[in-house]
Amino acid sequence: MRNRPLKREQKKALTRTRLLKAAEKVFARRGYGDASLDQVAAEAGFSKGAVYSNFKSKQDLFLVLLDEHIEERISDLRRTLVAGEDLDQQLQESADRYIKHLNESEQWHKVLFEAWTCSMRDRRFGAKFMKRFQDCRRALAEGLNARFERFGLPLPLPAEQLAAAIDALGFGIMVQKLASPNTVPDNLLGDIVALILRSGATVQREMGYASRCQVHESDGAQPGGLTAEKGLSHPGAFKEEG
């Protein structure tokens, strides 16, 4: 049985996919500044006209490439931060997935690094990139907030600030692993994030308990009647009760 010829829309979609894959290779290999649309076309096996029929410019191609990967990251965050009954394990798994993706997708992370460096040099490009990246950070913040609310645990910082801190930590580890993969343990990100969240939430709970003790003492009640809530350092603190 003969294969049916591809429709025009299908052919265009396949061409676009091949161009994006080729662009990722070229941007990772040469950097955004030294990359050209001629090189992308040659890498994909097309003419330069094929590039211009799908993308307006080199910057447009770069931003579309970033869009696709950022959308994948947002979907992954939402899947990871919705399921599961053990928050401690969930956070560790999310960090482990990020590191696994970093180890398996070095090329893409070099492109992401290029996006950050271009943002520092070109404010207009930076505004476009950050608008996209903020969607990813917002998804992380929403996921953290929802999960901690579900478990009845306090966040050590506002969700938006915490998401920014985790992003910054992840970016620093990404850069070091790209430069020298063996100098950064794979479990480091997950361990540090869990430590920050446990420590911060434990402090907030202890402060809240101390405040309630003061209220009871001022009312003439005995503080011994209160039972301290378990802190996040307790092994079962991150598990949802049945």
Kindly describe this structure.
Residues 222-242 have low confidence and may be disordered. By secondary structure, this protein is an all-alpha fold. It is elongated, with a radius of gyration of 24 Å. It folds into two domains: 8-55, Homeodomain-like (Arc Repressor Mutant, subunit A); 58-225, Tetracycline Repressor, domain 2 (Orthogonal Bundle), CATH 1.10.357. It has nine helices and no strands. It has helices spanning 8-34, 37-44, 48-52, 58-80, 87-104, 106-121, 123-150, 159-179, 188-218.
Brief synopsis:
The chain is mostly helical and 242 residues long. It contains nine helices and no strands.
Give the key terms.
elongated; mainly alpha; 73% helix; Arc Repressor Mutant, subunit A; Tetracycline Repressor, domain 2
Question: How are the SSEs placed, and which strands pair?
Answer:
Layout: H1 8-34, H2 37-44, H3 48-52, H4 58-80, H5 87-104, H6 106-121, H7 123-150, H8 159-179, H9 188-218
